[in-house]
Amino acid sequence: MKKRDCVCLVLVCALVLSGCGLENIFRGRNSESPPLATPMVQSGMIGPTELVESELGVLNLYGVDASDWDTFYYVAPDGIECVELTLWYLSEGAWESAGMSRFYNAVNGRIALRFDSDALSLQCNLVDNFGSGSSIGQPMQLAEPVEGVSWGWSSLGEQLTVGMDEPVAIWLGSSTSESMHGLYDPGIGFSEPERYAEGYEDVFAFTVEFKTQPLELLY
Fold this sequence. Notes:
Layout: H1 3-17, H2 22-27, E1 45-49, H3 53-61, E2 70-75, E3 82-91, E4 94-104, E5 108-116, E6 121-128, E7 133-135, E8 140-141, E9 150-155, E10 160-161, E11 168-176, H4 186-191, E12 203-211
Antiparallel strand pairs: 1-2, 1-10, 2-5, 3-4, 3-12, 5-6, 6-7, 6-8, 9-11, 11-12
Helix pairs in contact: 1-3
């Protein structure tokens, strides 16, 4: 097993071992609540959060750098069928799916993302309200490293109220060969792809969507 796979499994274990049940998923058994509005009692919310002390302890035990990961909590709107995580690639001004994973009955949970700027890959882990953890296979390869091209990325930095059947961008990465690299908030960059009309090589976005019906039932 490759080292990056081991790191992902360690993170999943850390998130799962922090506790079972909704409150423990967000807070850990004996930790302080995150510096956000109480997400546990509100449906239809997503926002950034931090690893709790128990999770950091597990990561430190295995030598995993927690600062490499962006972590988010979510509380799905009432009535959803599944949570859909999608990697998008910007092609000729329009977003195209480059990979998707679907989680059923995961109405509340946490998501951890890690962008490897050397390998140019994105890894995602999810822990749901039942305390079960999932790693989305191998890291998702975004592009091949090219000399003279630099990458930049941004992640969701505030709590948002979300609806159903609407993708919400929580991460956005782009590359350019220009001397200046403009970075946009994921929500802005995803909703306004025309901002990348000039000066960019590759642009990717990662979204969370709370779906009322699985995709195959919509046809």
